[in-house]
Amino acid sequence: MNKMNLEKQSKEILIKNDRGGYTVPTARLYPFQWNWDSGFTALGLVKFNEERAWQELEKLFEGQWQDGLLPHIIFHQSSPDYYPGPDLWGMPKDVYENDRLLPQTSGISQPPVLSTVVRMILEEANDKALAVVAAQGLYPRLLAWHRWWWRARDPENTGLSVVYHPWETGMDNSPAWDKALQRVEAVNNSGHKRRDLQQVNQAQRPSQMDYNRYMALVELFSSLKYEPEALYEQSTFKVIDLGVNSLLQRSNIDLLSLAQQFGSLEEQAEIEMRINLTRQAFQRLWSPELSIYLNWDCITNTPIEIPVAAGFLPLFARIPDEKQAKQMSYELSRWSDLCRYLVPSCSPDSADFEAKRYWRGPVWFIVNWMIGEGLEHYGQTALSEQIRQNSKELVELSGFFEYYDPQDSSGLGGGEFSWTAAIFLHWLSE
Protein backbone atom coordinates (compact mmCIF):
# COMPACT_ATOMS: atom_id res chain seq x y z
CA MET A 1 0.00 0.00 0.00
CA ASN A 2 1.46 3.39 -0.91
CA LYS A 3 2.15 6.19 1.55
CA MET A 4 -0.84 8.31 0.49
CA ASN A 5 -3.27 5.45 1.02
CA LEU A 6 -1.76 4.65 4.42
CA GLU A 7 -2.08 8.29 5.52
CA LYS A 8 -5.68 8.37 4.39
CA GLN A 9 -6.43 5.07 6.13
CA SER A 10 -4.79 6.18 9.37
CA LYS A 11 -6.87 9.38 9.48
CA GLU A 12 -10.02 7.38 8.74
CA ILE A 13 -9.25 5.07 11.67
CA LEU A 14 -8.95 8.00 14.08
CA ILE A 15 -12.20 9.49 12.80
CA LYS A 16 -13.96 6.12 12.98
CA ASN A 17 -12.81 5.60 16.60
CA ASP A 18 -13.97 9.08 17.66
CA ARG A 19 -16.78 8.90 20.20
CA GLY A 20 -17.50 12.61 20.46
CA GLY A 21 -14.51 14.36 22.00
CA TYR A 22 -12.51 11.28 22.88
CA THR A 23 -11.10 8.37 20.90
CA VAL A 24 -11.42 4.70 21.79
CA PRO A 25 -8.33 2.56 21.09
CA THR A 26 -10.42 0.26 18.89
CA ALA A 27 -14.09 -0.65 18.65
CA ARG A 28 -15.50 -3.16 21.17
CA LEU A 29 -12.18 -4.50 22.54
CA TYR A 30 -11.45 -1.17 24.29
CA PRO A 31 -14.69 0.88 24.25
CA PHE A 32 -13.66 3.68 26.66
CA GLN A 33 -11.01 6.42 26.88
CA TRP A 34 -7.59 5.20 27.97
CA ASN A 35 -5.01 7.55 29.48
CA TRP A 36 -1.79 7.06 27.51
CA ASP A 37 -3.69 5.95 24.41
CA SER A 38 -5.25 9.39 24.23
CA GLY A 39 -1.85 11.03 24.55
CA PHE A 40 -0.45 9.13 21.59
CA THR A 41 -3.70 9.57 19.66
CA ALA A 42 -3.50 13.35 20.06
CA LEU A 43 -0.11 13.29 18.30
CA GLY A 44 -1.87 11.88 15.24
CA LEU A 45 -4.99 14.05 15.47
CA VAL A 46 -2.95 17.25 15.45
CA LYS A 47 -1.75 16.43 11.94
CA PHE A 48 -5.21 17.13 10.51
CA ASN A 49 -7.39 18.62 13.28
CA GLU A 50 -5.62 20.68 15.94
CA GLU A 51 -8.78 21.63 17.82
CA ARG A 52 -9.77 17.97 18.09
CA ALA A 53 -6.29 17.03 19.37
CA TRP A 54 -6.61 19.49 22.28
CA GLN A 55 -10.15 18.29 22.93
CA GLU A 56 -8.85 14.72 23.29
CA LEU A 57 -6.64 15.78 26.18
CA GLU A 58 -9.19 18.07 27.81
CA LYS A 59 -11.78 15.31 27.74
CA LEU A 60 -9.36 12.94 29.45
CA PHE A 61 -8.79 15.37 32.31
CA GLU A 62 -12.53 15.40 33.05
CA GLY A 63 -11.76 12.21 34.98
CA GLN A 64 -8.94 13.63 37.12
CA TRP A 65 -9.34 13.05 40.87
CA GLN A 66 -9.06 15.84 43.44
CA ASP A 67 -5.70 14.47 44.66
CA GLY A 68 -4.25 14.77 41.15
CA LEU A 69 -4.54 11.13 40.03
CA LEU A 70 -5.42 10.83 36.36
CA PRO A 71 -6.95 7.34 36.03
CA HIS A 72 -6.05 4.90 33.30
CA ILE A 73 -9.68 4.50 32.10
CA ILE A 74 -12.40 7.13 31.88
CA PHE A 75 -15.85 5.58 31.53
CA HIS A 76 -17.66 8.33 29.62
CA GLN A 77 -20.45 5.90 28.76
CA SER A 78 -21.39 2.31 29.53
CA SER A 79 -20.50 -0.68 27.36
CA PRO A 80 -21.13 -4.43 27.65
CA ASP A 81 -17.91 -5.19 25.74
CA TYR A 82 -15.32 -4.56 28.47
CA TYR A 83 -14.54 -6.04 31.88
CA PRO A 84 -13.95 -4.76 34.55
CA GLY A 85 -16.28 -1.76 34.35
CA PRO A 86 -16.64 1.06 36.90
CA ASP A 87 -18.64 -1.02 39.39
CA LEU A 88 -15.73 -3.43 39.84
CA TRP A 89 -13.42 -0.51 40.60
CA GLY A 90 -15.78 0.58 43.38
CA MET A 91 -16.29 4.04 41.96
CA PRO A 92 -19.21 6.11 43.29
CA LYS A 93 -21.96 7.14 40.90
CA ASP A 94 -23.62 10.52 40.36
CA VAL A 95 -20.72 12.63 41.67
CA TYR A 96 -20.95 16.31 40.76
CA GLU A 97 -18.32 19.03 40.71
CA ASN A 98 -19.43 22.62 40.05
CA ASP A 99 -22.79 21.28 38.87
CA ARG A 100 -21.06 18.95 36.39
CA LEU A 101 -21.56 15.19 36.54
CA LEU A 102 -18.12 13.57 36.73
CA PRO A 103 -17.44 10.44 34.68
CA GLN A 104 -16.69 7.22 36.52
CA THR A 105 -13.11 6.00 36.29
CA SER A 106 -10.74 3.20 37.22
CA GLY A 107 -8.62 3.66 40.34
CA ILE A 108 -5.06 3.38 39.00
CA SER A 109 -3.06 5.42 36.50
CA GLN A 110 -0.90 4.75 33.43
CA PRO A 111 2.53 5.81 32.06
CA PRO A 112 2.50 9.65 32.07
CA VAL A 113 3.24 10.79 28.54
CA LEU A 114 0.84 13.75 28.43
CA SER A 115 3.20 16.62 29.33
CA THR A 116 5.46 15.50 26.49
CA VAL A 117 2.47 15.39 24.14
CA VAL A 118 1.26 18.84 25.18
CA ARG A 119 4.69 20.37 24.63
CA MET A 120 5.04 18.70 21.21
CA ILE A 121 1.62 19.82 20.02
CA LEU A 122 2.17 23.35 21.37
CA GLU A 123 5.48 23.67 19.53
CA GLU A 124 4.24 22.34 16.19
CA ALA A 125 0.79 23.95 16.19
CA ASN A 126 -0.25 26.14 13.30
CA ASP A 127 -2.98 27.78 15.38
CA LYS A 128 -0.70 29.27 18.03
CA ALA A 129 -3.45 31.22 19.77
CA LEU A 130 -5.54 28.08 20.28
CA ALA A 131 -2.46 26.11 21.37
CA VAL A 132 -1.38 28.64 23.99
CA VAL A 133 -4.86 28.84 25.53
CA ALA A 134 -5.21 25.04 25.56
CA ALA A 135 -1.74 24.35 26.95
CA GLN A 136 -2.12 27.03 29.59
CA GLY A 137 -5.40 25.45 30.69
CA LEU A 138 -3.87 21.97 30.85
CA TYR A 139 -0.67 22.99 32.65
CA PRO A 140 -2.03 23.10 36.27
CA ARG A 141 -3.79 19.77 35.77
CA LEU A 142 -0.58 18.21 34.43
CA LEU A 143 1.37 19.60 37.38
CA ALA A 144 -1.18 18.15 39.81
CA TRP A 145 -0.82 14.73 38.17
CA HIS A 146 2.98 14.83 38.31
CA ARG A 147 2.82 15.82 41.97
CA TRP A 148 0.58 12.80 42.56
CA TRP A 149 3.25 10.55 41.06
CA TRP A 150 5.97 12.24 43.12
CA ARG A 151 4.12 12.08 46.44
CA ALA A 152 1.49 9.32 46.42
CA ARG A 153 3.77 6.89 44.61
CA ASP A 154 7.13 7.94 46.03
CA PRO A 155 6.38 8.77 49.66
CA GLU A 156 10.02 8.28 50.64
CA ASN A 157 11.15 10.80 47.99
CA THR A 158 13.61 8.44 46.30
CA GLY A 159 13.15 9.92 42.83
CA LEU A 160 11.45 6.78 41.48
CA SER A 161 7.70 6.15 41.61
CA VAL A 162 6.17 2.74 42.31
CA VAL A 163 3.24 0.97 40.66
CA TYR A 164 0.87 -1.50 42.28
CA HIS A 165 -0.73 -3.18 39.26
CA PRO A 166 0.61 -4.55 35.96
CA TRP A 167 -2.16 -2.63 34.17
CA GLU A 168 -0.65 0.57 35.54
CA THR A 169 2.56 -0.11 33.61
CA GLY A 170 0.61 -0.35 30.34
CA MET A 171 2.63 -3.52 29.66
CA ASP A 172 0.24 -5.83 31.48
CA ASN A 173 1.71 -9.32 31.11
CA SER A 174 5.36 -8.42 30.62
CA PRO A 175 7.59 -11.32 31.75
CA ALA A 176 9.22 -8.76 34.05
CA TRP A 177 6.15 -9.01 36.32
CA ASP A 178 5.89 -12.82 36.48
CA LYS A 179 7.73 -13.40 39.74
CA ALA A 180 6.33 -10.35 41.54
CA LEU A 181 2.81 -11.25 40.42
CA GLN A 182 3.12 -14.75 41.91
CA ARG A 183 2.92 -13.15 45.37
CA VAL A 184 -0.63 -12.02 44.57
CA GLU A 185 -3.15 -14.58 45.76
CA ALA A 186 -5.32 -15.21 42.72
CA VAL A 187 -9.07 -14.92 43.12
CA ASN A 188 -10.62 -17.65 40.97
CA ASN A 189 -13.97 -15.93 40.70
CA SER A 190 -16.40 -17.16 38.05
CA GLY A 191 -17.88 -13.67 38.09
CA HIS A 192 -14.77 -12.41 36.30
CA LYS A 193 -16.17 -12.59 32.80
CA ARG A 194 -13.40 -11.64 30.43
CA ARG A 195 -14.70 -9.97 27.30
CA ASP A 196 -11.36 -9.68 25.49
CA LEU A 197 -11.36 -13.36 24.52
CA GLN A 198 -14.58 -12.91 22.56
CA GLN A 199 -12.64 -10.74 20.12
CA VAL A 200 -8.99 -11.82 20.28
CA ASN A 201 -7.43 -15.29 20.29
CA GLN A 202 -6.41 -16.34 23.80
CA ALA A 203 -2.88 -17.10 22.55
CA GLN A 204 -2.45 -13.34 21.99
CA ARG A 205 -3.73 -12.24 25.42
CA PRO A 206 -2.68 -12.56 29.09
CA SER A 207 -3.30 -15.94 30.69
CA GLN A 208 -6.33 -16.62 32.90
CA MET A 209 -4.10 -16.98 35.98
CA ASP A 210 -2.63 -13.53 35.27
CA TYR A 211 -6.14 -12.16 34.91
CA ASN A 212 -7.28 -13.69 38.21
CA ARG A 213 -4.37 -11.96 39.94
CA TYR A 214 -5.12 -8.66 38.21
CA MET A 215 -8.65 -8.82 39.58
CA ALA A 216 -7.44 -9.74 43.06
CA LEU A 217 -5.41 -6.52 43.09
CA VAL A 218 -8.41 -4.49 41.93
CA GLU A 219 -10.46 -5.94 44.78
CA LEU A 220 -7.70 -5.10 47.29
CA PHE A 221 -7.34 -1.51 46.06
CA SER A 222 -11.10 -0.96 46.12
CA SER A 223 -11.29 -2.28 49.68
CA LEU A 224 -8.56 0.19 50.69
CA LYS A 225 -10.43 3.00 48.89
CA TYR A 226 -7.23 3.78 46.94
CA GLU A 227 -5.72 5.51 49.98
CA PRO A 228 -2.04 6.09 49.04
CA GLU A 229 -0.49 5.17 52.40
CA ALA A 230 -2.54 1.97 52.66
CA LEU A 231 -1.64 0.93 49.12
CA TYR A 232 2.06 1.57 49.76
CA GLU A 233 1.94 -0.62 52.85
CA GLN A 234 -0.39 -3.40 51.72
CA SER A 235 -0.08 -3.97 47.99
CA THR A 236 1.35 -7.42 47.31
CA PHE A 237 2.61 -6.19 43.93
CA LYS A 238 4.99 -3.22 44.16
CA VAL A 239 7.58 -2.50 41.49
CA ILE A 240 9.56 0.34 40.01
CA ASP A 241 8.57 0.23 36.36
CA LEU A 242 10.98 1.54 33.74
CA GLY A 243 8.14 2.59 31.44
CA VAL A 244 6.34 4.71 34.01
CA ASN A 245 9.53 6.27 35.35
CA SER A 246 11.10 6.91 31.95
CA LEU A 247 7.97 8.56 30.62
CA LEU A 248 7.54 10.48 33.87
CA GLN A 249 11.11 11.78 33.69
CA ARG A 250 10.71 12.84 30.06
CA SER A 251 7.38 14.44 30.96
CA ASN A 252 9.07 16.22 33.89
CA ILE A 253 11.51 17.77 31.42
CA ASP A 254 8.65 18.82 29.16
CA LEU A 255 6.54 20.01 32.12
CA LEU A 256 9.46 22.28 33.07
CA SER A 257 9.26 23.84 29.59
CA LEU A 258 5.53 24.42 30.12
CA ALA A 259 6.17 25.84 33.60
CA GLN A 260 8.63 28.34 32.11
CA GLN A 261 5.77 29.62 29.95
CA PHE A 262 2.76 29.23 32.22
CA GLY A 263 3.95 28.55 35.78
CA SER A 264 5.70 30.25 38.68
CA LEU A 265 9.39 30.33 39.59
CA GLU A 266 8.59 28.15 42.61
CA GLU A 267 6.98 25.52 40.37
CA GLN A 268 9.96 25.57 38.02
CA ALA A 269 12.33 25.01 40.95
CA GLU A 270 10.15 22.15 42.24
CA ILE A 271 10.16 20.42 38.85
CA GLU A 272 13.91 20.91 38.36
CA MET A 273 14.57 19.37 41.77
CA ARG A 274 12.56 16.30 40.82
CA ILE A 275 14.33 15.96 37.46
CA ASN A 276 17.73 15.97 39.16
CA LEU A 277 16.61 13.54 41.88
CA THR A 278 15.24 11.08 39.33
CA ARG A 279 18.29 11.28 37.09
CA GLN A 280 20.47 10.20 40.01
CA ALA A 281 18.04 7.51 41.18
CA PHE A 282 17.96 5.84 37.77
CA GLN A 283 21.59 4.81 38.09
CA ARG A 284 20.72 1.88 40.36
CA LEU A 285 18.51 0.47 37.57
CA TRP A 286 21.39 0.28 35.07
CA SER A 287 22.88 -3.16 34.36
CA PRO A 288 26.33 -2.88 32.71
CA GLU A 289 26.39 -6.68 32.32
CA LEU A 290 23.13 -6.74 30.31
CA SER A 291 23.64 -3.33 28.67
CA ILE A 292 20.08 -2.36 29.53
CA TYR A 293 18.09 -0.82 32.39
CA LEU A 294 16.14 -3.16 34.66
CA ASN A 295 12.83 -2.96 36.48
CA TRP A 296 12.98 -3.27 40.27
CA ASP A 297 11.01 -5.41 42.73
CA CYS A 298 10.36 -3.21 45.77
CA ILE A 299 9.25 -6.07 48.01
CA THR A 300 12.46 -8.09 47.63
CA ASN A 301 14.46 -4.90 46.93
CA THR A 302 16.22 -6.52 43.97
CA PRO A 303 16.50 -5.83 40.24
CA ILE A 304 14.27 -7.84 37.90
CA GLU A 305 16.89 -9.33 35.58
CA ILE A 306 14.63 -9.90 32.58
CA PRO A 307 15.53 -7.84 29.49
CA VAL A 308 12.40 -6.20 28.09
CA ALA A 309 11.85 -3.36 25.63
CA ALA A 310 11.08 -0.94 28.46
CA GLY A 311 14.77 -1.24 29.35
CA PHE A 312 15.53 1.00 26.37
CA LEU A 313 12.98 3.70 27.28
CA PRO A 314 15.46 5.65 29.46
CA LEU A 315 16.84 6.82 26.09
CA PHE A 316 13.54 8.68 25.61
CA ALA A 317 14.00 10.21 29.08
CA ARG A 318 17.59 11.37 28.34
CA ILE A 319 18.84 9.32 31.30
CA PRO A 320 21.91 7.40 29.96
CA ASP A 321 25.29 8.97 29.38
CA GLU A 322 26.88 8.60 25.95
CA LYS A 323 28.73 5.41 26.89
CA GLN A 324 25.58 3.77 28.24
CA ALA A 325 23.58 4.83 25.18
CA LYS A 326 26.17 3.22 22.93
CA GLN A 327 26.07 -0.01 24.95
CA MET A 328 22.27 0.00 24.69
CA SER A 329 22.43 0.43 20.92
CA TYR A 330 24.79 -2.54 20.64
CA GLU A 331 22.39 -4.65 22.69
CA LEU A 332 19.42 -3.60 20.59
CA SER A 333 21.37 -4.43 17.44
CA ARG A 334 21.97 -7.88 18.92
CA TRP A 335 18.19 -8.27 19.35
CA SER A 336 17.85 -7.26 15.71
CA ASP A 337 19.97 -10.25 14.68
CA LEU A 338 17.53 -12.56 16.49
CA CYS A 339 14.25 -11.38 14.93
CA ARG A 340 13.01 -9.82 11.72
CA TYR A 341 11.39 -6.67 13.15
CA LEU A 342 12.39 -4.33 15.94
CA VAL A 343 11.57 -3.75 18.77
CA PRO A 344 10.22 -6.97 20.33
CA SER A 345 8.78 -6.40 23.79
CA CYS A 346 11.09 -9.04 25.28
CA SER A 347 14.57 -10.14 24.25
CA PRO A 348 14.15 -12.81 21.53
CA ASP A 349 16.64 -15.13 23.21
CA SER A 350 14.87 -14.96 26.57
CA ALA A 351 13.14 -18.12 27.78
CA ASP A 352 10.09 -15.91 28.40
CA PHE A 353 9.81 -14.70 24.81
CA GLU A 354 6.48 -15.41 23.06
CA ALA A 355 6.19 -13.86 19.60
CA LYS A 356 2.40 -13.46 19.62
CA ARG A 357 1.38 -12.96 23.26
CA TYR A 358 0.69 -9.33 24.10
CA TRP A 359 3.69 -7.82 25.96
CA ARG A 360 5.82 -11.00 25.97
CA GLY A 361 7.32 -10.59 22.50
CA PRO A 362 5.30 -8.55 19.97
CA VAL A 363 6.30 -5.19 18.51
CA TRP A 364 4.32 -2.09 19.59
CA PHE A 365 4.40 1.15 17.58
CA ILE A 366 4.37 3.45 20.60
CA VAL A 367 7.44 1.75 22.05
CA ASN A 368 9.19 1.82 18.67
CA TRP A 369 8.59 5.55 18.35
CA MET A 370 9.90 6.35 21.85
CA ILE A 371 12.99 4.16 21.51
CA GLY A 372 13.64 5.44 17.99
CA GLU A 373 13.30 9.06 19.13
CA GLY A 374 15.69 8.38 22.01
CA LEU A 375 18.29 6.73 19.77
CA GLU A 376 18.15 9.66 17.38
CA HIS A 377 18.77 12.08 20.25
CA TYR A 378 21.92 10.14 21.16
CA GLY A 379 23.18 10.13 17.58
CA GLN A 380 22.36 6.47 16.94
CA THR A 381 20.65 7.44 13.69
CA ALA A 382 21.17 4.22 11.72
CA LEU A 383 19.48 2.11 14.39
CA SER A 384 16.71 4.66 14.82
CA GLU A 385 16.07 4.60 11.07
CA GLN A 386 16.03 0.80 11.09
CA ILE A 387 13.24 0.90 13.68
CA ARG A 388 11.34 3.42 11.54
CA GLN A 389 11.65 1.30 8.44
CA ASN A 390 10.66 -1.88 10.31
CA SER A 391 7.57 -0.07 11.60
CA LYS A 392 6.60 1.17 8.14
CA GLU A 393 6.97 -2.31 6.71
CA LEU A 394 4.72 -3.80 9.40
CA VAL A 395 1.92 -1.39 8.49
CA GLU A 396 2.43 -1.94 4.76
CA LEU A 397 2.27 -5.71 5.17
CA SER A 398 -0.41 -6.09 7.84
CA GLY A 399 -2.31 -2.85 8.42
CA PHE A 400 -2.92 -0.84 11.59
CA PHE A 401 -2.98 -3.44 14.36
CA GLU A 402 -2.51 -3.16 18.11
CA TYR A 403 0.79 -5.10 17.98
CA TYR A 404 2.78 -7.33 15.61
CA ASP A 405 4.69 -10.59 15.52
CA PRO A 406 8.40 -9.61 15.31
CA GLN A 407 9.18 -12.72 13.27
CA ASP A 408 6.46 -12.97 10.61
CA SER A 409 4.92 -9.43 10.69
CA SER A 410 1.38 -10.65 11.35
CA GLY A 411 -0.97 -8.11 12.94
CA LEU A 412 -2.21 -9.11 16.39
CA GLY A 413 -4.75 -7.98 18.98
CA GLY A 414 -7.20 -5.27 17.98
CA GLY A 415 -7.46 -4.05 14.39
CA GLU A 416 -7.89 -0.47 13.15
CA PHE A 417 -5.99 0.60 16.25
CA SER A 418 -5.89 4.29 17.15
CA TRP A 419 -2.40 4.70 18.55
CA THR A 420 -0.83 2.73 15.71
CA ALA A 421 -2.58 4.99 13.19
CA ALA A 422 -1.63 8.07 15.21
CA ILE A 423 2.05 7.17 15.52
CA PHE A 424 2.10 6.47 11.78
CA LEU A 425 0.88 10.03 11.15
CA HIS A 426 3.21 11.54 13.74
CA TRP A 427 6.40 9.62 12.97
CA LEU A 428 6.25 7.51 9.85
CA SER A 429 4.45 9.71 7.32
CA GLU A 430 6.97 12.56 7.68
For this entry, give a set of tags.
430 residues, mainly alpha, Glycosyltransferase, 3-stranded antiparallel β-sheet, 47% helix
Describe this structure in words.
This protein is mainly alpha-helical and 430 residues long. The chain has one domain (3-428): Glycosyltransferase (Alpha/alpha barrel). The protein has 16 helices and twelve strands. Strands 1-2-5 form a three-stranded antiparallel β-sheet. A three-stranded antiparallel β-sheet has the order 6-9-10. A hairpin with a 4-residue loop joins strand 9 (295-297) and strand 10 (302-304). Helix 2 packs across helix 16, helix 3 (50-60) runs parallel beside helix 6 (128-151) and helix 6 packs across helix 11 (242-262). The radius of gyration is 20 Å and the shape is globular. The chain starts with a helix and ends with a helix.
> What is the percent of helical residues?
40-55%
CATH class: Mainly Alpha
Number of helices: 16
Q: Report how far the terminal alpha carbons are from each other.
A: 16 Å
Strand order of the largest sheet: 1-2-5
Structural class of the secondary elements? mainly alpha
Instruction: Describe the oligomeric state of these chains in a short phrase.
Output: single chain
SS strand fraction = 5-15%
**Which regions have little confidence, pLDDT < 50, spanning 5+ residues?**
none
- DSSP E strands, number: 12
Number of spatially distinct domains: 1
Question: What is the annotated CATH architecture?
Answer: Alpha/alpha barrel
Biggest sheet character: 3 strands, antiparallel
